[in-house]
Amino acid sequence: MTIQGEQIIGHAIAKGSQGEVFGVDAATGQALQPAFGGASPADLERACALAEAAFDPYRETSLEERARFLEAIADEISGLGDELIERCCLESGLPRGRVEGERGRTMGQLRLFAGVLRDGGYLDARIDPALPDRQPLPRPDLRLRNVPLGPVAVFGASNFPLAFSVAGGDTASALAAGCPVVVKAHSAHPGTSELVGRAVAKAVQSSGMPEGTFSLLFAAERSIGEALVADPRIKAVGFTGSRGGGTALMKIAAARPEPIPVYAEMSSINPVLLFGGALRERGAEIGRAFVASLTLGAGQFCTNPGLVLAIEGEGLDAFLSAAEEALVASPAAVMLTPGIHSAYTKGVAAVEAHGSVATVAKGQAGETLRGQAALFQVSAADFAKAPELQEEMFGAASIVVTCRDAAEMAEVVRALEGQLTAALHIVAADHGDARSLLPLLERKAGRILVNGFGTGVEVAHAMVHGGPYPSTADGRSTSVGSKAIERFLRPVSYQSLPDALLPDALKDANPLGLWRRVDGRMTAPQG
Amino acid sequence: MTIQGEQIIGHAIAKGSQGEVFGVDAATGQALQPAFGGASPADLERACALAEAAFDPYRETSLEERARFLEAIADEISGLGDELIERCCLESGLPRGRVEGERGRTMGQLRLFAGVLRDGGYLDARIDPALPDRQPLPRPDLRLRNVPLGPVAVFGASNFPLAFSVAGGDTASALAAGCPVVVKAHSAHPGTSELVGRAVAKAVQSSGMPEGTFSLLFAAERSIGEALVADPRIKAVGFTGSRGGGTALMKIAAARPEPIPVYAEMSSINPVLLFGGALRERGAEIGRAFVASLTLGAGQFCTNPGLVLAIEGEGLDAFLSAAEEALVASPAAVMLTPGIHSAYTKGVAAVEAHGSVATVAKGQAGETLRGQAALFQVSAADFAKAPELQEEMFGAASIVVTCRDAAEMAEVVRALEGQLTAALHIVAADHGDARSLLPLLERKAGRILVNGFGTGVEVAHAMVHGGPYPSTADGRSTSVGSKAIERFLRPVSYQSLPDALLPDALKDANPLGLWRRVDGRMTAPQG
Question: Residue B173, Cα to own-chain centre: how many angstroms?
Fold first, then answer.
C-alpha cells in the first residue's frame, strides 16, 4: 500500500508531527487507517521557503518543458491505477463511475494547460515598436508579456477530491502559469490526496523541476491553512468550499501587509428558469431531466440546480408531477462527509419548516449518512420576503418559485445574489421573454445556458466557472477552462530593452512562434 | 465664464448644497472663485441610481457608438480652449506647456480607447463548437465574451488634473468597457473638473447616451467619497493618490456585503539602477538626465525617480558631480497644493535629519509654496537598516544608495516594496549583471526600462502603469494604455444559446468582424 500518512515538502516525504488527520469511510463514518501527520509551523515555513526558492527557476523553464511536466503529472495519476479509485470512492462515498470520470477530467485539465502553454497566447505578448521620428516626442520601444504572480496556495475541495484538489484545476492552472504550489489537503480525503501528491512529486523529479515546485500539507488545525494564506511568500490563493471558509480566507488575505488575490469558489444556487412555452411543450420531460441533474452525485455540485423559477400554468403542473414521480423514486445517497450530511439535513429541515414553503416531494429515506433528496415550492411573492431561502442547501434539495409571468420572474432574478450558472428552458415562442431577461442574467451569473442544467462543467476555452460574489470571491475569473491561468498572471512592460535582454516571448525574431499584438493589431507568428 | 461651481448629476447641472469647495491658486495659496457646492447624500444617491439605470442601455450601445462617444468627449475637451488651460495652470501650478501636453494626452487616451472598441479584441470572444458525437458525452456549444462590471467610481488625482481626473484614463477605460462613471472631483482643481465634466456631459447628450452614463460630484467632506465606494450599485473603483487614501478605499471596498475591486495607484519610488559600465562611460551625462527627470513637473509624477542604486567608483563620482551641478541650478517650483508642499517639505527634512544620510545637493530655494529639489546619499548597508527611507517623498527629492557591487545592489532591490517602474542604465559590458537582476526586477515592478527614466508614460498597447503592492492596490492591472480596459470586465460563458439570442460578438456570422479563439486557436475575422 502506497498510502503512508505522509505529507510532501519538496523532495521530503515524511509524516507530519502536529496532530493527526484521519480519512473517514463516507458510508459508515468509520475512521480509516493510516493516520496522517499534521503539518507544524516549521513544515509550513519549509514548504513556503522552498516554493519561494523554486519560483525563479521554475518560471524560467520553457513553455514546452512546463507542458511536458503537466503531462507527466497526468501520466503519473493514471499510473496510480485502482488504488486511487478505490481509496477515493471510500473517502468520498462517490460511485466508481463518477470517480473514474473525475480522474479523467483531472488528467484532461492538465493536458489542456499543456496545450495552453504550447499556444502561448496566455502571455498576451505585445510590441509597440519605437517611433524615433514622432513629434513632439519620439516613442520608445515598448513590449509587454504576462509573468506569474509567485507561489500559490491551493486548498483542496471536499466535493471534487481529484478535479479541484491536489492536482486539480487550481494547481494545474497555477503550475501552468509558472507558479509553485503549496496545497493544503482537504481533511475529507487525505489518502486520495497523498496518492495524487506522490504522483505530482514524482513528476517534479522526473521532469527535473525545482524542488519547491510542489508541496502537500495535511493540517490537523485550522491555523495552518490560515498561516499559509498569511505567509508573505504566497502571492495568490485558490479555494473551493463554503462561503464561511472562503470569506475567512479573503479577510486574512486583505489584512496582510501586502494584500493578495483570493480565488474562492463558494456558494451558488444556480437558478433554472422555466418559461411558459417550454413548460407547455415539455414540462414533464424537463421535470425528469431536472431531477436527474438535482440528484447527480448526491447533489454535491457547485452548479447543482438549487432554485427553479417557473411560470405558473398547466406546463408547470406537468413539470411538478414528473419531478415528484422521479424524486420519490430517487434513492438516498451517501454524502461526502458526516459534516456535510449533517449540514444538509439541517438546511432541508429549516426550509421544510418555513411557513411559506410547501413540500413537493422527497426522495427515498436511507440509512445513516445518506442524503434524502427534497423539492419544495414557494410563491414568488413569499420568496421575495424570505432572503434566507436563497441560502445554499449543499445537496440534492431545490426550491421551485412559482411566478405569475415573465415580469415577476425578472423581479425574482433581480433580487438574487451572484451565481455560477443560470439555465433557461425555452422554445422559440419564449425567445422574446428570454432576450429581455439576458442582460439581467449576465449581471447575475458567470455562465448562461439554454435547455440544459449547469451540472456538467466542460473543461474548455470558452468555459466560465465563476460568477459575481458570493458565488466566487472574484467574478473577474474562472476556475475551470483555459482562462483559469489568467488568475495567476500580471503584466510587465519592457521599455527600450536590447533584444539580448528581452524574454524570448518578445524578441524580434519571435523564437516562440507566438501570436502577438503589434501596434495593437493581432499578428500571426509569421507576420 | 463657464465655471459656475456646479456639479453634474446626469442631465442636471446645479450647485451642490452640502458645504463648499474652493479652488486654490497653487502659486499663492489664495482661494479662487466661485465656490463649488459639495454633494449631499441625496446627490450621491441620485448619481448612483442614474448610473445603475444607465448601465444596461449604455453597455448595449454598439462598439462604434461608444467609440464615437469617446471621440466626442475628446472633441468637447478640445473645444474648451484656453479657458481650460488657464484654469488648470492656476489650480495646479503646472506650467502651460505641461498642461497643454496633458490635455493632448487626455484626448489621446480617449481616442486610443475608441480604437480599442473598433478592434474589439478586448471582448476576448471565444467559441468552442458543439461536438455532438464526442464519447463518452457530447460537448455542448460554448461561447465566451467579456462584459462590463457595472457602474464605476473614479477619484480624480491631484497630480494629473486632466489625464487622471474627470475624463482621464480611469474614466476613458471604464466608459470604453461599457461602465457608467461617477467621478468624485479632486478638491485641488474643481474648476478644471467642472469644465471637463461639462464637456463629457455635452458628449453624453450629443451622442444620445443614457442620462446616468456620467456624473461629477464635488465633496466638501470625506464621507461622500467613502459612501460612493460603499454604494451597492458601484462595482469597481479607480483611484490615483496617496497610500493612505488608497488603502482607506480598499478597506471600505473589502468590507462591503459584496466586495469590489479597487484599482488604486498609490506610491512608488521607482528605483534607477546605475551599473558600473554605464557609469564609467557616461556617468556625468546620466547625472544631468537624472536631474531633468527628477525635477520635471516639480517631481510630482508617480514615476518620479525617488531612489538611485549605483555601483561605487569613479563613474558614480562623475554622476554625483554632474547631478549636484544640475540640481543647484534647478529653480524651486510651485507645487500642486499647499498640502502637498507641506508634506514634501516635512519628508525632505526627515531624510535630511536622518543619521546615516548625507546631503549631496539642494536646488534653489524659492518663495513660499515652492518645492526645493534635494538629493541625498546613503550606503547600501545603512539603507538596509532604515526601511523608513523607502517612503515616497512626493516631489523632486531622491536618495542615492551606493552599492559595492552588483550583488549588493541585488540585495537592496530584494528588500524594496512593489514599484511602478525600475530603470536600468547599462552598456553592453553590464548585460550580464542586468540579466541576472531582471527576474527580481520583474517581481518588483510593472515596467522595466533601459537607459531612460520612467517619468514619460507612453499611452500605448504594451504599456503597464501598475505594479506590485503598494505601488498599486492590484498589480494584475494597468491604469495607462489599452490594457486598462481589462480592469472593468468579467467573462460570461454562453452554453447552447440559439444564434438569435447570442450577443453579436459571438454569433456564427461574426457580424462585428472580430478575431475570435475558436477551439482555442486565434482565428481571423474571415477565417
Answer: 11
In this prediction, residue B364 has a pLDDT band, given cuts at 50, 70 and 90, of very high
Query: What is d(CA A373, CA A361) in angstroms, rounded to the nearest whole number?
Result: 8
DSSP state of A156: P
Mutate to test the interface with A, among B489, B495, B506 (most CBs of A within 10 A): B495
What mean pLDDT is reported for chain B?
Answer: 97
Complex ipTM > 0.90? yes
Nearest to A486 by CA among A306, A316, A238: A238
∠ CA(A262), CA(A265), CA(A268), 5° rounding? Answer: 145
Q: For A126-150, what is the mean pLDDT?
A: 96
H helices present in A152-221, as ranges: 169-177, 190-206
Q: What is the pLDDT of residues A480-501, one digit of tens each?
A: 999 999 999 999 999 999 999 9
Would the pLDDT of B527 be above 80? Answer: no
Contact A455, A305 (CB under 8 A): yes
Q: Which of A260, A275, A288 is nearest to A473 (CA)?
A: A260
Q: Do the Cβ atoms of B143 and A116 come within 8 Å? A: no
Best interface-test mutation with A: which of B493, B508, B522 has the largest number of A CBs within 10 A?
A: B493
Interface residue A491 vs chain B (CB under 8 A):
yes
Whether the per-residue pLDDT at A527 is higher than 60: the answer is no
Within 8 A of A458 by CB-CB distance, chain B residues are: 128, 139-140, 142, 495
Cβ contact A426:A278 at 8 Å: yes
Asked whether the beta carbons of residue A491 and residue B482 sit closer than 8 angstroms, the reply is no
Q: Is B259 on the interface with A (CB under 8 A)?
A: yes
Q: What angle do CA A315, A318, A320 make, to 5 degrees?
A: 110
Length of chain B: 527
Best probe of the B interface among A492, A499, A506, A507, by most B CBs < 10 A, is A492
B308 touches chain A (CB under 8 A): no
Tell me the Cα Rg of chain B: 25
Interface touch B140/A458, C-beta < 8 Å: yes
Q: Kindly state the average pLDDT of the residues A423-450.
A: 98
Out of B121, B150, B495, closest to residue A450 by CB: B495
Task: Evaluate whether A47 touches A9 at the Cβ level (below 8 Å).
Answer: yes
Please indicate if any CB of chain A lies within 8 Å of the CB of B491: yes
Nearest residue in B to A459, CA atom: B139
Question: Which of B116, B150, B448 is closest, CB to CB, to A492?
Answer: B448
Residues 132-151 of A with CB under 8 A from B: 136-137, 139-140, 142-144, 147, 149-150
Q: Which residues of B touch A493 (CB under 8 A)?
A: 446-448, 462-464, 478
Distance in angstroms (rounded) separating the CA atoms of residues B38 and B230: 18
pLDDT attached to residue A526: 77
Residues of B identified as active-site: 265, 302
Mean pLDDT, residues A139-168: 97
B128: β partners: B142
Provide the terminal-to-terminal Cα distance of chain B, rounded to the nearest Å.
55
Q: What does A234-278 look like in DSSP terms, one character per residue?
A: --EEEEES-HHHHHHHHHHHHHSSS---EEEE-----EEEE-HHH
Residues in Cβ contact with B317 at an 8 Å cutoff, skipping those fewer than 6 apart: B283
pLDDT band (50, 70, 90) for residue A2: confident
Which pLDDT value is given to residue B1?
Answer: 57
Query: Using one digit for the tens of pLDDT, what is the confidence trace for A400-417?
Result: 999 999 999 999 999 999
Instruction: Tell me the average pLDDT across B335-363.
Output: 97
Instruction: Check CB contact of B436 with chain A, cutoff 8 Å.
Output: no
Listing DSSP states for B475-519 in one string gives TT--SSSGGGGGGGEEEEEEES--GGGS-GGGSTT-TT---EEET
